[in-house]
User: What shape does this take?
Amino acid sequence: MFRRQRVRPMQARSGWCGWRIAVLFAAVLQGTAALAAAPGFRVVELGAGSPVDVNSSGTVVGITGTTMSPQPWIVAAGVRSALPLPAGATYAMVTRVSAAGVAVGHVAGKPLVWLPGPGGYTTQPIPLPAPFTGCAPSAVNDGPTGPRVLMNCGYLGFLANPVNLYFSASTPFLYSAADGLVDLATRYALPIAVAAPDMTASGRILASTGAILEPDGTVTPAPSPRIAGYWQGWSATRLNEEGEMIAVVSLATSDGHGEIARYTPGVGWFVIETFIGATYPYSADGISEAGDALSSQYGGHMLTTADGERLPLDALLLDPGYVLTTAPGGAMADDGRIVTVARNPAGTWTAVRLDPGTPVILVRDLFFVA
Assistant: This one.
């Protein structure tokens, strides 16, 4: 973990102007500046399309095509290939990938799993729990007897499309070949049916309320709001093994302001960004096992380090000439890898994976004395 305070990024690359080096060196000698380090990222191009998820081995799943006809793909061990479609299907949406490379998704709300094998990937349907009309897999991990798939199921709303499913209300289920479909609202005696957006490798399940459904059947209560009354509602999106989570918060304001915030057990809430209603797109995209958080808003992506530094992701790229998309979204693996879309030096938009690399130099504000 890096410890930093009130710093601004300056990339550790060749190409600094000589006068900048001289000023920096002189300032450091006079005690007027201090250096620190932040994570730097190497850019790996993945080809056309939109990446959706990434694991700590660098396996990435994503889609090409359109909202009405998504075509799923996977990059594993550096090789990109199309994920096969179920019999009779002309499209499919992939949503997550496990540490072992098992992918999950759906065809218009009919859930499925892609299993890796010697001859490539094969599809396996997941039964749809009655009486619901659709399920959206939100996470997958690798259990001792096979993959365990976390899904949110409900009645498909009229706004649903092949990429984004909308339910009038949802109930979380956990599926495995050994145990079948497990209704989590019943198992954990949840007072209301809530969405479950994430699950860790050990099986800790995040409810959108911030409660954690533990593998032993107990429930870790949701954290208290940062400011009672001011936080009118919030939706947790991602969780790590330490119980840290990232969430989107609605504030009690007349203009619909909100916050993106990270919760750390024993520490409390840390506000990452404040957003202005629906004026600008925003998203809380991921949290690593180290506690670094990925979010996007106001035309850019932000990495918030475990010790509270808010850093523009574009400034942390170690490969020159790349510009990240300003559209919200992206994903982060347990080890801090990130996937998003970028324009490469040739001007072509491409899916990219950002791998942690050589730290970036950060320089505190310089003060000059006449």
